[in-house]
Write a structure and sequence with these properties.
Number of helices of chain B: 4
Largest sheet of chain B: none
CATH class of the largest domain in chain A: Mainly Beta
Oligomer: heterodimer
Largest interface: A-B, 25 and 26 residues
Strand content of chain B: under 5%
Distance between the termini of chain B: 49 Å
Distance between the termini of chain A: 44 Å
Structural class of chain A: alpha+beta
Number of domains of chain B: 2
Structural class of chain B: mainly alpha
Number of strands of chain A: 30
Order of helices and strands of chain B: HHHH
Shape of chain B: flat
Helix content of chain B: over 70%
CATH architecture of the largest domain in chain A: Sandwich
Radius of gyration of chain A: 30 Å
Helix content of chain A: 10-25%
Chain lengths: ~450, ~130
């Protein structure tokens, strides 16, 4: 059967042969083009860039280029001896990262020490601070001694009678070992006439309150309270107690790092604000657990100021706990530091959401390459980093670092993440595609 | 450099082959575009993030223009008759496009609208045939 779209046009034998050959060539060319496109889809590259001439441009997908003091580079100027750090955030497995830097032509003799990259979560790479003690408001017991953590300090109750007099629920005191108490600094003892210490918790007319700076701060809801403390820790009081202290106009919301859902969005809580998560890929890419999402009411959401989108490039919020897969240690992210939660009890006093798994090896495993001048243009330096070995590390952030040997000025940075053509990558991409199709059908 | 007369002669001589090839390439492009639209319907962004769909549209329009130009400039009237095969292929592609655009509807409704569209196109064609 002869498939001809224009049968009224009849060719002689010679032209028919020529047409037949050209047609075959056309179909082969089309097939190869389709195959090339299929490879681009199944083994996609991801591109990132940053322009120091336009640092606020939306097209800048490389985040936070900075020196070792975390200061942004002023117009791309990198002084001698200063290191450059920058991040890219992505989900997926890649084989190679090709970094290209365009330098200002006024610095013709620029050169660099090696470029290195680490893969993890950026928050997990924060500087490590001192080990963390118990959370404020925690009630502790060691042998026959009773304590409350107030303003970060461990305050001992002068005796069991004081506890009864003040109304602290005895069963809520957590039994801890003596060495666990060393992680909080010691505060003043609580005697007969001391009154309630800061961070004491109260339940008054079905509302929870916390004493701070001699004022009662109300929790916006029971759910919000439960993200901080157990309900049994609160001292039950009647309405008259509200007259004894000034009520703070600033209530307490959900614990830092809480995940709230309202309407079709999920929000991350940090610093009295909520950040909507841009898509489910970011949610799972950041290691969050769907079981930790709290269904919030309109009133609870209205308490917060809505901020910009929380994307894959955003750092984990304060209050996040990382759990290392190698040795199962827990680290709390707080105030730009990563702090070890040294014991199970201390961890329990802080935990609010499921700890995010992290790789401890990510702190040490690096890939390096030497930046070399491009053959065609002397102000472009390129380097190819093998990152296959890092793919088993948990995290969505690649943190690059580079040190110039002389002062230089950068105009652009480009990073291309490439996948090697292979069965493993093909299977991964095909699996992702099938999952997306399933999700679309399930809607 | 070829002068204009020789170029015109060359084109006239090879116009039938060029016309046939441009029809073939048009079919390939339209078929490819339909597959891309179906893929985009199933997985939004799977193609469009890597290849702008407008580029395919521009190439199709350019090919169509080329086909029509060759037909009108170099081919005689009796060679200009449209092929029945092209008609059926075009109808098939049109129905696929309609099906794809109604993808989010329940399947039975989609098929009903498709059948209805096919019947309308058929009757319009019948009317023009009679005229």
């Amino acid at each position: 059967m002869h498939f001809d779209l224009s049968p009224t046009i009849i060719l002689d034998e010679k032209n028919s042969l020529l047409y037949g050959r050209m047609r075959v060539f056309l179909y082969i060319f089309s097939f190869l083009l389709a195959l090339y496109l299929a490879f681009r889809i199944l083994f996609p590259s991801l591109f990132f860039e940053f322009s120091f001439n336009n640092p606020r441009a939306k097209s800048n997908t490389i985040t936070n280029p900075r020196d070792e003091n975390l200061a942004p580079l002023e117009k791309g100027l990198l002084n001698e001896g200063k290191s450059l750090f920058f991040n890219t955030s992505l989900v997926g497995t890649y084989s190679t990262a090709i970094v290209s830097m365009t330098l200002d032509k006024k610095y013709p003799n620029s050169s660099f020490e090696s470029l290195s990259v680490r893969k993890s979560y950026n928050a997990f790479l924060y500087p490590e601070g001192e080990a963390m003690g118990f959370r404020d408001g925690t009630l502790l017991k060691n042998k026959s001694d009773f304590y409350i953590v107030s303003d970060g300090k461990l305050r001992k109750f002068a005796g069991a009678k004081i506890i009864d007099a003040l109304g602290f629920p005895v069963n809520s005191f957590l039994n801890v070992a003596g060495d666990e108490l060393t992680y909080n600094s010691k505060g003043d003892a609580i005697g007969k006439n001391s009154g309630y210490p800061d961070d004491s918790l109260f339940l008054i007319q079905n509302n929870f309150y916390q004493l701070q700076d001699n004022k009662l701060k109300k929790f916006i809801s029971d759910f919000a309270f439960s993200t901080h403390y157990e309900s049994g820790q609160a001292i039950k009081k009647n309405a008259d107690f509200l007259k004894e202290y000034e009520i703070d106009s600033d209530p307490i919301g959900f614990s830092e790092g809480s995940l709230l859902s309202y309407a079709d969005s999920i929000y991350v809580v940090e610093g009295g604000k909520i950040f909507p998560i841009d898509n489910p890929l970011t949610f799972s890419g950041k290691g969050f657990d769907w079981n930790d999402v709290i269904q919030a009411s309109a009133d609870e959401i209205a308490f917060y100021e809505k901020e910009k989108l929380f994307t894959i490039a955003s750092d984990h919020p304060s209050g996040t706990i990382f759990n290392t897969t190698e040795d199962h240690l827990n680290y709390l992210i707080i105030d730009g530091q990563k702090r070890l939660l040294p014991t199970e009890n201390i961890f329990s006093s802080w935990v609010n959401t499921t700890p995010v798994p992290a790789s401890k090896d990510s702190l040490d495993i690096k890939s390096n390459c030497q930046m070399k001048k491009s053959f065609l243009r002397s102000n472009i330096f390129k380097c190819s980093l093998p990152i296959v070995e890092m793919q088993q590390l948990i995290g969505s952030d690649y943190v690059f670092s580079l040190k110039p040997t002389k002062e230089t000025r950068l105009d652009f940075i480009n990073v291309e993440f490439k996948k090697d053509i292979g069965f493993k990558n093909f299977r991964f991409t095909a699996g992702e595609i099938l999952n997306r199709i399933k999700n679309n059908y399930a809607r | 450099m070829l002068d204009k007369t020789k170029l015109a002669e060359l084109l006239q001589k090879n116009a039938p082959i060029l016309y046939k090839l441009s029809c073939d390439s048009l079919l390939i492009l339209v078929f490819f575009f339909v597959l891309v639209l179906i893929a985009e319907g199933l997985l939004p962004g799977i193609i469009s993030t890597r290849l702008g769909l407008y580029k395919i549209v521009v190439v199709i329009c350019a090919n169509l223009l080329l086909t029509i130009s060759i037909k009108n400039l170099f081919l005689s009237e009796d060679q200009n008759l449209p092929s029945q095969k092209i008609l059926w292929i075009s109808l098939g592609i049109a129905l696929l496009l309609i099906f794809n655009s109604l993808f989010s509807l329940p399947i039975y409704l989609n098929l009903f609208i498709l059948a209805l569209s096919g019947a309308i196109i058929f009757y319009i064609f019948q009317v023009f045939e009679e005229k």
